[in-house]
Amino acid sequence: MTFQKSNLIHATVSIFISLWMYYDSMNKDFGLLIPFLFGVVLLSLNNGIILDNIQQRNAALGVTLLLLVFIVYMIFDFARHDDVELTAWFGVMACTSFLSIVVFLWAKMKKSY
């Protein structure tokens, strides 16, 4: 798997799950749409990753790290309030975020040799 594919999967999962959580919730909280905004930014950076643009690849990694920090914060917040469903959805987004970071680091190590 390449970083471009993992970034595309991560962006689409973030977009669709955050929209699903927003429309499924009783309280329409803007915090549920923040992963949607990060997903749109990651999707826009995907073309630069295909063309092997170093700045856009590093920007995508930075956005992914910021999104992972936000998702982990939201997981702890919803777990504290015993909201299992939203905690599970944010867990799925955290897994794709972590997978994207691991694939990036693996591709970078593979390229350095």
Note the topology.
Elements: H1 3-24, H2 34-50, H3 54-80, H4 84-112
Helix pairs in contact: 1-2, 1-4, 2-3, 3-4
Can you offer a commentary on this structure?
With 113 residues, the chain is mostly helical. The protein contains 4 helices and no strands. The chain has one domain (3-112). The longest helix is centred in the C-terminal third of the chain and has 29 residues, at 84-112. The protein is elongated and about 45 Å long.
Structural class: mainly alpha
How many structural domains does the protein architecture include?
A: 1
Anisotropy-based shape: elongated
| Largest beta-sheet characterization | none
Q: pLDDT average, as an integer? A: 91
Which regions are unreliable across 5 or more consecutive residues at pLDDT < 50? none
Over all CA atoms, what is the radius of gyration? Answer: 14 Å
What oligomeric state is this?
single chain
Q: Termini separation (Å)?
A: 18 Å
| Portion of residues within helices | over 70%
Strand content: under 5%
Number of DSSP helical runs = 4
Counting DSSP E segments of at least 2 residues, the number of strands comes to 0
Secondary-structure element sequence?
HHHH
